[in-house]
Amino acid sequence: MIPAVRGTRDVVPGEVERWQHLEQVAHDVCRRYGYREVRTPVIEREELFAKGTGESTDIVQKEMYAFTDKGGERVTLRPEATPSVVRAFVQHALEQALTEAKLYAIGPMFRYERPQKGRYRQFHQLDVEAFGVEAPALDAEVIEMAAHLVAELGIADAELVINTVGCPECRPAFSRALLDALGDRVAELCGDCRRRARTNPLRIFDCKQPADQPVIDGLPHTVDYLCPPCSEHFAAVREALEAFGVEYRVSHRLVRGLDYYRRTTFEILGRALGAQDALLGGGRYDGLVRQLGGPDRAGIGFAAGLERLVLAMPPDAAVAAPPDAYVVAIGEEARQPAQVLARDLRHAGLCTLVDYDARSPRSQMKRAGKAQAGQVLILGADELAGGRVSLKDMNTGEQEAVPRGDVVDRLRRMQKDCVAS
RNA sequence: GUGAGUGUAGCUCAGCGGUAGAGCGCCGGACUGUGGCUCCGGAUGUCGGGGGUUCGAAUCCCCUCACUCACCCCA
Known about the structure:
Blueprint: H1 16-32, E1 36-37, E2 43-45, H2 46-52, H3 58-62, E3 65-68, E4 74-77, H4 82-91, H5 94-97, E5 102-110, E6 122-131, H6 136-152, E7 158-164, H7 171-182, H8 191-199, H9 213-217, H10 228-244, E8 249-250, E9 262-270, E10 278-284, H11 288-291, E11 299-305, H12 306-312, E12 325-329, H13 332-347, E13 352-354, H14 361-370, E14 375-379, H15 381-386, E15 388-393, E16 399-403, H16 407-420
Parallel strand pairs: 1-5, 7-8, 12-13, 12-14
Antiparallel strand pairs: 2-4, 3-4, 5-6, 6-11, 7-9, 9-10, 10-11, 14-15, 15-16
The protein binds one RNA strand through helix 3, strand 6, strand 10, strand 11 and helix 12.
């Protein structure tokens, strides 16, 4: 047996229904909020992520499936969707074509990491991006939409956390304040934190080492170092969220790892997930479109991890629908007519199973019962002689002979009643 | 890249030096044209892989691979 590649997985019947439900809800929520779908390639030029995601991020430094193709081009499997969506937005001048530049994408992403609960090398994201609006009203709408998506999926144990990371105007001052406050105590922190202090001081807030917490708790907060525009923006976002009645917690420790974030950042955490508990995360990235060669447009969005959402969805969120009908053929002369009957039912829209192997009637009934078929249609010598089909309701056990010509309509009506009720 | 744990039937697991097992599931029969309950029967394993110790290894030792969880980082 040749197993699936490490960190990749099959979604098999039984679980795939949950994915189908999730995708249907995702498409529907996006549509209602005015987003249009865009499908971008899973393979891109490596430089797109070097410039977009950021050279300093772990994603770019060590997690990309990058290689040189046969034409000598440096390409990579996409590790995230935002730069791709921005590229498509710029490349096709979509702001000209759309009244609102709101785009979403669903698909696989690839990062070379050690797999663990809620994290895979091939994973899937719903990526939602809106361009060209600087107003805090959009920040709040995007966050509210994310919360609504989670709620719509029936995920109750979720917590919305928001923060602001300032902008290129005010962030350097905050980083300095952070390092000043830390002073010599940097040496007391764990190795990761000492490294962060040099590369990206804000990320010290991500530390999970219990021993480091007392020091980190004493550090200054971004909100106290924002420039006036950033400060006003954050206040307006919070005000709008409150008007929506969205519950949230402000955490000055929510920093997020991607280089392009400005101002608003947010995450929704799932409580039943394990260590990788972010169901979705995002924020504002006002400089990114321009940095990738487009016009100077603001941007904001989020990425939701589909594996994590599936994990967090209630156990009974979606199950496969049982077949409408099972056609039982008794005797050799009934086999072909049974296939034709099954064909007719299928053409009429009914999910129909039929036996191929001349099993005993008992065996066929057992299979119909196991498949939870609603109706069993029995075709044997008696029925063929009378031009009828025996129709057995598997829930009540009642059985009656129905003229062959009426069977399809009869079942179709029963199915409609079933859907209606 | 680092650390810990686990690999035995399709699934959940027992067996821990002496002939590979149970429950569930699957297939068939009792009921030769009628499911669910019951009973009876059946199939299925390179005991993750390789090497070593031993008269003898699923069991002990070494290596390796995979999975799981956690770190890093992130969805």
